[in-house]
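Q: Mind making up any chain with C-alpha cells?
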Amino acid sequence: ALARFYGCLLQVPVLAGLSDRHWRLTLPGGGLLELYAPSRRRPPLPPGGRLGLCLRRCGDGETLSAWVATACGRGAALEEGPRQEPFGWEAWLRDPEGNRVLLVVSPC
C-alpha cells in the first residue's frame, strides 16, 4: 500500500522488487526509489527518527495544494502547511505509515 501511495505522488508505476516485501519506483533521470519492509530479524526503528523524505516538483501554490489533496486522499495526514517560503511552497505530511514527508513545489 505504501508503494502505491508513493507511486501516486510521484506519478510513476510501482514495479516488483527482489521479494514480495520489496518495490521499486523509477524516478525521472533513471534513479530508483526502493521501498521494502525491513528484515524481521533487525530491531525495530525508533519512532519519529531524524530523517524526512522530500519530494519536489515544479509549479506554484496551486500545484502544491492539489498535490497535498492527492496525498491526503491516499491516506496521508497534513502536519504543517501549505505555506510559501523563499524557495517556493512546502507542506509537511505523514504518509499512511506515519513517516514524515516534505512536499516542495518551486518555479522551474
Notes: The longest helix spans residues 61-73. The chain has a mean pLDDT of 87. DSSP finds two helices and seven strands in the chain. The first strand starts at residue 14 and ends at 16.
